[in-house]
Design a protein that fits this description.
The chain is of the alpha/beta class. It contains 6 helices and 4 strands. A 4-stranded parallel sheet has the order 2-1-3-4, with helices on both faces.
């Protein structure tokens, strides 16, 4: 699967996505994602409990810097303890198959690579 395929698939599914900050959320909203939870310095246990109350599966899209990796590991561990499945496939694709290291750059990256918002069907 390429980036277009992933974005289409995830926009159809509309999974709950956990991100670090407002710029990350903005990038995902620009691509048509709706169910987004911000960390924004909130205690991780409150995020874990909120996600567990809302769903049994989610994506964690923290950055690939040291802080993002640390947040990802802690969130994943906490969510799994609450029986929430963390779907890593899109995260692994982004960070292994693209040059992205920060989620906030996803919309621009997709646009530069030829994935335009007009070429992707929005599902409401």
């Amino acid at each position: 699967m390429n980036l277009d395929d992933w974005i289409r698939k995830l926009r159809l599914e509309q999974p709950l996505i956990v991100v670090e900050g407002v710029k990350d959320k903005r990038a995902l909203v620009a691509l048509g994602f709706k169910k987004i939870i911000l960390l924004q310095g909130r205690p991780l246990f409150t995020i874990v409990e909120e996600v567990a109350d809302l769903t049994n599966s989610c994506l964690i899209l923290t950055d690939l810097d040291a802080e993002g990796k640390k947040l990802y590991a802690a969130l994943k561990k906490g969510l799994q303890r609450h029986k929430v499945k963390v779907d890593d496939r899109f995260r692994h694709f982004l960070f292994k198959e693209t040059t992205l290291r920060h989620v906030e750059g996803l919309a621009k990256y997709a646009e530069v690579r030829g994935t335009t918002l007009h070429s992707l069907e929005f599902v409401d």
